[in-house]
Structures are given as structure tokens and as C-alpha cells.
Design goal:
single chain; alpha/beta; 16% strand; eight-stranded mixed sheet; Rossmann fold
Amino acid sequence: MSTTVIRPHYSRPPQLIAVAALRQELAASDPCTDHPYLCEFRAAYQDYESMMTETQLASELAAADVVLVGDYHTLPSSQLYVAQLVEQLARESGREVVLGMEMVYARDQRPLEAWLRREIDERELRARIRYETSWGYEWAPFAALLHAGRAHCAAVYGVDCVPRGDMRRIAQRDRHAAARIAGIREKHPGAIVVVVFGEAHLAPTHLPAEVASRMPKARVLTVLQNMDELYWKAGAERRGRAAVKVQPGVVCVFNATPLEKYESYRDYIEGWQDGRPHPSTSRRSGRRARRR
């Protein structure tokens, strides 16, 4: 069966120019911009197959066993989308929902469980998972995601491992997360496992491939958010539509403009330059990880 590819519909040139200038500015402050790992992600998703209605998107989500959602850490709408997603799935899918989060190391599952049981408050949870030094992004949207998980999910798990800041070992994190997801799936075989992880990890050869290798029979859906090229090419067709189908097993939703996305990262860079602790600095490598 042949696939129809939508013709590009570009937005107004001033918006494209503004985003291009901002991306160039950010690249000068980000030593990892041209790392092959990030380039693979950007190159993987340059076009889409078709628009999706809310009903079509909901059907794809409800049929999945594992939903990998790409997170843009500095953009609050990215985390709030996942909070809304787990609530929607718990309400409409007829299945249990389990949440896995990059922001919490797997080794910190014990304090997370204590918070889920309401034995400790948010302040103690932040201290025990060392939120400011190990993650450090704005607390409120990630807290909203945690609360959505506690209210609507059968369980919530941390899925990441150290070191976060060393690009030389980033594939190790993918392997660890995939093994963790497989273990979660074994504990909750009938549930939809929603995992939110930095967007660059969702190139087909990165975390999705690791998950597929461990769970070949699982239905895995990758959910991207606000991909630049897809945003510009979908153009006016985005209005009234929930998402685009990128390729089998991959969709992209839109809840922010590219300009909003990159402005959120610029705000963080300015804060880091003013002395705010960087969330993903590796003491061993001295390198900084990207906002993804």
C-alpha cells in the first residue's frame, strides 16, 4: 500500500527566521548540539504521513502496551501534556496505567514510594531524590506530573540511572531504562506503561530500539512533542487536529510553538549563567547535558 505524504505548508517567514536565529544563539551555548546522538534524533523525524483526529490518537494510545513520550525539560506544557495523558488513559482506556519518569533515578524508588503512600511530603521527597542537584528544572510542572501519577496510576516508577551529564555514556541510560521498563511491564502485564523521557532518547535507534529488543511482542508507541519540522510542515492543518502520524508506531502532538519551546530553554541558560545550578552536569566529565 502506498503512503501519501502531506505537502509542506510553511508558516510565516518571520516566525521561521526568529526560530532559526534563536536556535543559532542556543547552539553557541550548548556544546552537545552537534553530537551524533542528537543529530540522529533530529534526522529521524523530518516528515509525516497524515493528520490524526482526537479519536484516532486516543485509539492508538489505548492500544499500546508501552507509550514512550518525549519530554522537553524546560517547557512546562511538555510535562503537563503527560499529566493530562495519564489521566485520560486511566479514565478512557479501560486499563490500568503505570507511569515511568526520567526525572527520578531508579535507585530513588524508595522515597518515591513513601511519597506515593503519603508518608512524606513534597519537600522531603525533593530532598531525598536530590531534585535540585540531580534534575533541577522547574518543580511545578514535574510536581503536577507526579500528582497525576499518584491520582490516576496503579504505580509510578523512576527509570533513569547515572550519569546524566556524560554524552559518552548516554546509550547506557537507554539500555538501563529499557531494562527497567521491561521489569515494570512484567509487574503490570495488563497495564499501559507510560514513560516520559528526554526527547532525543526517542530516535528509532535509541530507547525505542532497546525497548523493542527486550519486549518484541509489546505494542510500543512513540509520542513526540512539538517537533520543529513537523510543526512547520503541518501548518494550518494542525488546527482542529490532535496530532500527526509520523510513521507506524510514531505520532507527534503539538502543545507549544517552536518559538515558545526555544525561549524556554534560553530562559534556563540565562539562569545557569547567573549561577543557577545546572541540572545535568557530570562531575566526572565536566560536560553539560542538553535540555533533552
